[in-house]
Specification:
- The complex is a heterodimer of chains A (765) and B (159).
- In chain A, strand 18, helix 15 and strand 19 form a beta-alpha-beta unit.
- The relative contact order of chain A is 0.14.
- In chain A, 27% of the residues lie in helices and 22% in strands.
- Chain A is built from 20 helices and 26 strands.
- Chain B is of the alpha+beta class and 159 residues long.
- Chain B has two domains: 76 residues, Ubiquitin-like (UB roll) (Roll); 71 residues, [2Fe-2S]-binding domain (DNA polymerase, domain 1, Orthogonal Bundle), CATH 1.10.150.
- Chain B contains five helices and five strands.
- The radius of gyration of chain B is 16 Å and the shape is globular.
- The mean pLDDT of chain B is 97.
- The chains are: A alpha+beta (765), B alpha+beta (159).
- The structure holds FE2/S2 (inorganic) cluster (2 copies).
- One FE2/S2 (inorganic) cluster (FES) binds next to loops of chain B.
C-alpha cells in the first residue's frame, strides 16, 4: 500500500447477517493448481516474442556519485547490439517536487539515474542485443566517468549535522525547521497528555531499538517483455502486483497515452509489496522503441537485491508507563526510518501502527522519513508495522517482567475494542483483537512447559488493511458456467477465493467458474494487489458482480413466466417464484436461462466498479518458543503459533498459508536477514547465500488459529489477512530470545554475533 | 564464439541443440528448448528453483553448463506427470495448498521426487533437510512438508 493511498476505512454495514455458507469456508483445489505443478504456468520470464532482443542494465558501483559522462560508442559498435538507452530516452516533462508530491519523478530517477548515481546498483544505462550474453558483454563496454561523492547509508548518521546532503529541497512542508535536509517528511499524531500519563505510572521504561533493512525476497526476479513502436502503441508482459499501475507509470515515463499501452500481468512468483512499482519495465519499453523490436529484460538476483525492494531500516525510541495492575498510563514513540535515496520510508505507518492494539488515554508518536544512499525502499508486507511492534512490544514485555505480570493478561487488559479511539485517530469498528488474545491464552502452546535454554515470547500486531479502486466483470456462458475477470494478480490462490464467493452467489459448483486476471485493455482500472485488499475488495466486487448477474437471471425468468421481477428469487442455481401468489412455476435452472439468453435480451454479465472503503482492520497475537545456544549465539525457533482475525476465511487453507508465510518471513527478519553495507557504501550480501532467508530445516511447523470476527464492511465479513501475519513475529521472537538468553535484545536481526555480543556485554565481558 | 552441438535426452525424448559454451543447462532448457518449467531464482545455486535431475542425480541446472548435457539423461518438472494423471506429489501439493505463488514449486517437486526415490519413508526432519536447498518465500514450508509426507505415504501404500 503506497503512502498516499491510506485512508482511514469507513466501515460501512455490508455484512449479511446469519449467512449460511455452502461454498465459502470450504477448501477446494485451486483452479490454477495443475498449471503450477506441471511447469505450465507462465511467469514473468517465461514468455518470448518473435524477433525478441534481450536487455541488460549497467548499474552504478558507487553509493553516491555525479555522472560526468556516459560513452556508449563501444557498446553500440558491438555486433548484435540494437539499442542503448540512458536517461535521455525517458520523459523530460516530469518535474521533481518535495516529498511524495514528486513521486513520479522519484520513480523515473530510480528507474534510470539522472545527474547522480544515488546508490550502489542504481541504473545508469541499458542495452538491447540479439542475445542475453551479447547484451551483458555490451554493458561492460559502456564507459562512465563518475565523480565520487561522500555517502551515508545509516538512518541516524543521515540525520546528523555533518551528513552528506543527498538532494536538497526534497523535504516537504511537514518537516519542522532546523532538521538536516535528508529528513524529508515528518509525522506526528496521538491524543491525551503523555506527561501526565507518565507521572501517574508505577513504572516507566524508556528504551531504544533498531531494525535493519530486509528484502521481500520473492523467489522470482523481476522480468518483463516490452514491445513499443514509433506509433506510441505498446504491449508489456510483466510480473507485477498491479498492471494498471505499471501502465500508468510507464506511460508517464515514456510520454505515451496510457490506454495505448496494454499491460498483461504474468503469473507472479511472489511480491510481498516489492512488485507494486516499476524498475525494469519502462527500460524494456524504451529499448524496444529505439530498436523497434520486442525486448525482454530479466533481473539477476544480485540486481534484485541491489536495486529493488528492500523495506526501510529503523531506529526507534519508546517510552511506556504502566501501573502495577498492568494498565498502560501513557505511551510515546519516536520512529526514524530510512527508505533509500528517495522520500517514502513508511514512518507514518510505523508510528500509526505502533500503539494501535491498545486503548490508551495518553499516546503520542512521531515519525521521520530520512534519505540515505540506498535503493528506494518498496512496500514490504504491512510496511512499517512490524518494526513498530518489535520496539513497543519489547518494552511492554519488559514492563510485564519487572512488574511480575502475565504478558497476555496485560495485553487483554489494555486491548483495543469496538469503540476504542485508535492511537492514530479514528474509532475502531468491530475488531477481533480481544478474541485473538483469548484464543492465544486458551491455546495449549501458551501453557506448555519449556525446556531449559528456551524462552517464550508473545506479541500482538496490527494492520489497517485496504480497499482501493476495483473493477470486476462476470460473464455467463450458454451452459450456465461463469467466467470472472479480475484485475488483481493472483499471488497466493486468490482465484480460488473469487470462485468460491461467486459460487456462493450464483449457486453453481465452484468448478464451473473460471477466474482470469484480465489485462489492462480488458477491464476497468484496478489498484495493485496490496494492502491485503484482494479477498476483501476484489471479493466484494465479485460478489456484487455475481449479484448483478443474478438480478438479470431473475428478470429473464420473470419475463418467461410473465410475472413481476420481484416475485422471483434465486436459490442454489435456480430462479424460483417467491411464493404461492407469484404463481406455480417449475424452478428454472441457470443453464435453462443462459441457453436462451441471446433470444431473451442478450448476453448476461455482471459488473461492479467501486473504491470500497470498508476494509476492516485486523489484529493478530503470536506465541513463539525459541532456544538460544549460549556457545554459538544461534537461535532455533522450536514452536510457533499464529492466532489472527480473518473476519471470514473464504478458503481457510490459503488463510493458514498467509499466516504461516508471514510468520516465516518474520522469523527471517528477526534472526538472520539484513542488508549489510561496507564502509564504501556497497551492498555486501547481494545473494541468497549471504542474505539468508529461512530454509525448510530452519523452521518448525507453524500452528495457526483462525479467529473470525466479521468485518461489517464486507458482505461475508472478510478482512484482509496477508499483512497482519508479519506484524507480531519480530517482537514475539525478540521476547522469546530475550527470555531464553536472559538479556534484552534491542537490535535486529538477532544474528549469532549480536547475541554473543549481548551476552558478553551483560556478563561485563 | 562458435557454438557447441549437444545431443541429450530430456524427459525420455532425445533432444539436440546448439549452445554457447557459457550457457547453463538452465539457459538451454528455458531459452533454447522452450522448457520453462525450471525457474531461475538466483543463478548461483542458492535457491533450487532450477532443480532438475542429471542421470538421476538432483542438480541445480544453473550450475551445470549446457554442453555438459551431452549424452546424459535429464528430467525436469515437465516430465513428472506420467500422462494425463498427475504424480501423487503434484496432487498432494495442490490438495495441501503447498504452493502460494508457485515459483518454487517446480524445483521442489523435482527435489521431492528425487528424495522419495531414494527414501520412500522419510521423517519430517529428513524432508526438511533434503529440501533445505529449495527456497520458498511464501509458505513457511509447513504445507510443503506435509504434502511431501502425505505423498510418500500414499506412494508406499500403492507400492
Ligand atoms: S537458479 Fe539455480 S539454484 Fe537458484
Ligand atoms: S510458493 Fe511462492 S516461493 Fe514457494
Amino acid at each position: 500500500m503506497a503512502l498516499d493511498e491510506y485512508k482511514p476505512q469507513k466501515g460501512g454495514d455490508e455484512l449479511e447477517q446469519g449467512h449460511a455458507f455452502k461454498y465459502v469456508g470450504t477448501r477446494p483445489d485451486r483452479p490454477d493448481g495443475t498449471d503450477k505443478v506441471t511447469g505450465r504456468a507462465r511467469f514473468g520470464a517465461d514468455i518470448t516474442a518473435p524477433g525478441m532482443l534481450h536487455g541488460a542494465i549497467l548499474r552504478s558501483p558507487h553509493a553516491h556519485a555525479r555522472i560526468v559522462s556516459i560513452d556508449t560508442a563501444k557498446a553500440e559498435a558491438l555486433d548484435g547490439v540494437k539499442a542503448v538507452v540512458t536517461r535521455a530516452d525517458f520523459s523530460d516533462a516530469i518535474q521533481p517536487a518535495p516529498g511524495m508530491a514528486g513521486e513520479m519523478w522519484n520513480v523515473l530517477e530510480n528507474v534510470m539515474a539522472g545527474d547522480k548515481a544515488l546508490y550502489d546498483g542504481h541504473a545508469i544505462a541499458a542495452v538491447a542485443a540479439t542475445s542475453a550474453l551479447t547484451a551483458r558483454d555490451a554493458v561492460k563496454l559502456i564507459e562512465v566517468t563518475y565523480e565520487v561523492l561522500p555517502h551515508v547509508t545509516d538512518v541516524d548518521a543521515a540525520m546528523a549535522d555533518d551528513a552528506p546532503v543527498i538532494r536538497d529541497g526534497t523535504a516537504d512542508k511537514s518537516v519542522p525547521p532546523g532538521l538536516h535536509p535528508n529528513v524529508v517528511r515528518y509525522h506526528q499524531s496521538g491524543h491525551g497528555d503523555v506527561a501526565t500519563g507518565f507521572a501517574e505510572a508505577d513504572l516507566v521504561i524508556e528504551d531504544s531499538f533498531t531494525t535493519e533493512a530486509t528484502h521481500q525476497g520473492y523467489i522470482e526476479p523481476h522480468a518483463c517483455l516490452g514491445i513499443l513502436g514509433g506509433d506510441g502503441k505498446g504491449e508489456l508482459w510483466c510480473c507485477t502486483q498491479g498492471h494498471w499501475n505499471v501502465q500508468k507509470i510507464c506511460a508517464a515515463l515514456l510520454d505515451l497515452e496510457t490506454s495505448q499501452l496494454r499491460v498483461t500481468a504474468s503469473e507472479i512468483g511472489g511480491g510481498f509489496g516489492g512488485k507494486t512499482t516499476v524498475f525494469i519495465e519502462p527500460v524494456a519499453l524504451a529499448l524496444s522503441r529505439k530498436a523497434n523490436k520486442p525486448v525482454k529484460l530479466v533481473m539477476s538476483r544480485a540486481e534484485v537485491f541491489r536495486a529493488t525492494g528492500p523495506t526501510a531500516s529503523t531506529s526507534m525510541d519508546i517510552k511506556i508507563g504502566m501501573n502495577k495492575d498492568g494498565t498502560i498510563t501513557a505511551a510515546q514513540g519516536v520512529f526514524r526510518a530510512q527508505g533509500g535515496a528517495f522520500p517514502g520510508a513508511p514512518m507514518e505507518f510505523t508510528a500509526m501502527c505502533a500503539f494501535a492494539p491498545y486503548n490508551l488515554a495518553n499516546v503520542h508518536q512521531v515519525g521521520y522519513d530520512v534519505m540515505t544512499n540506498r535503493p528506494k525502499q518498496a512496500a514490504y508486507r504491512a510496511p512499517g508495522s512490524p518494526m513498530a511492534a518489535f520496539a513497543v512490544e519489547s518494552v511492554i514485555d519488559e514492563l510485564c517482567n519487572q512488574l511480575g505480570l502475565d504478558p497476555l493478561e496485560v495485553r487483554l487488559k489494555n486491548a483495543s475494542r469496538e469503540g476504542t479511539r485508535a492511537s492514530y485517530g479514528p474509532k475502531f469498528q468491530r475488531i477481533g483483537l480481544v478474541e485473538t488474545i483469548e484464543a492465544a491464552m486458551a491455546h495449549p502452546h501458551y501453557s506448555a512447559p519449556l525446556e531449559p535454554g528456551q524462552g517464550r515470547g508473545i506479541s500482538c500486531g496490527f494492520w489497517f488493511n485496504h480497499g482501493g479502486e476495483t473493477s470486476v466483470t462476470l460473464a455467463l456462458s450458454e451452459d450456465g458456467s461463469a467466467q470472472i475477470m479480475v484485475g488483481t494478480p493472483d499471488i497466493g490462490g486468490s482465484r480460488s477465493s473469487m470462485a468460491l464467493m461467486a459460487a456462493e452467489v450464483l449457486g453453481i459448483p465452484y468448478e464451473n467458474i473460471r477466474v482470469t486476471v484480465a489485462d489492462t485493455a480488458s477491464l476497468g482500472y484496478n489498484e495493485v494487489s496490496h494492502g491485503s485488499r484482494v479477498t476483501y475488495a476484489s471479493g466484494l466486487a465479485t460478489i456484487k458482480a455475481a449479484e448483478a448477474a443474478v438480478r438479470e437471471l431473475c428478470r429473464r425468468a420473470a419475463a418467461k413466466w410473465g410475472i413481476e421481477e420481484d416475485a422471483v428469487y434465486w436459490e442454489d442455481g435456480y430462479a424460483k417464484p417467491s411464493g404461492p401468489n407469484a404463481g406455480d412455476f417449475e424452478p428454472l435452472h441457470i443453464s435453462k436461462i443462459t441457453r436462451r439468453m441471446g433470444a431473451t435480451g442478450g448476453p448476461i454479465n455482471g459488473h461492479f466498479e467501486a473504491t470500497p472503503e470498508g476494509a476492516g482492520v485486523s489484529f493478530a497475537t503470536h506465541i513463539v518458543d525459541a532456544e538460544v545456544d549460549p556457545e554459538t549465539g544461534s537461535t532455533k525457533v522450536v514452536r510457533y503459533t499464529v492466532v489472527q482475525d480473518a473476519g471470514k476465511a473464504i478458503h481457510p487453507t490459503y488463510v493458514e498459508g498467509q499466516f504461516q508465510g508471514g510468520a516465516a518471513q518474520g522469523i527471517g527478519w528477526a534472526l538472520n536477514e539484513e542488508y549489510i553495507y561496507g564502509a564504501d557504501g556497497r551492498l555486501q550480501n547481494a545473494g541468497f547465500l549471504d542474505y539468508r532467508i529461512p530454509v525448510a530445516s530452519d523452521l518448525p511447523m507453524i500452528d495457526t488459529v483462525i479467529v473470525e470476527v466479521p468485518n461489517p464492511g464486507h458482505p461475508y465479513g472478510v478482512r484482509g489477512v496477508g499483512e497482519t501475519s508479519i506484524c507480531p513475529p519480530l517482537a514475539a521472537i525478540a521476547n522469546a530470545v530475550s527470555a531464553a538468553a536472559g538479556v534484552r535484545m534491542r537490535n535486529l536481526p538477532m544474528s549469532p554475533p549480536r547475541i554473543l555480543a549481548a551476552l558478553e556485554e551483560q556478563s561485563g565481558g | 564464439m562458435s557454438k557447441i552441438h549437444v545431443s541429450t535426452t530430456i524427459n525420455g525424448d532425445t533432444a539436440e541443440f546448439l549452445c554457447d559454451p557459457r550457457e547453463t543447462l538452465l539457459d538451454v532448457l528455458r531459452d533454447r528448448l522452450g522448457l520453462t518449467g525450471a525457474k531461475e531464482g538466483c543463478g548461483t545455486g542458492d535457491c533450487g528453483a532450477c532443480s532438475v535431475t542429471l542421470d538421476g542425480r538432483l542438480v541445480c541446472s544453473c550450475l551445470v553448463l549446457g554442453a555438459e548435457a551431452e549424452g546424459r539423461e535429464i528430467a525436469t518438472v515437465e516430465g513428472i506427470a506420467p500422462g494425463e494423471e498427475l504424480h501423487p506429489l503434484q496432487r498432494k501439493f495442490i490438495e495441501h495448498a503447498a504452493l502460494q505463488c508457485g515459483i518454487c514449486t517446480p524445483g521442489i517437486l523435482v527435489a521431492a521426487k528425487a528424495l522419495l526415490e531414494k527414501n520412500p519413508d522419510p521423517t519430517e526432519t529428513e524432508v526438511r533437510y533434503w529440501l533445505a536447498g529449495n527456497l520458498c518465500r511464501c509458505t513457511g514450508y509447513d504445507k510443503i512438508i506435509r504434502a511431501v509426507m502425505d505423498a510418500a505415504a500414499e506412494m508406499r501404500e500403492a507400492a
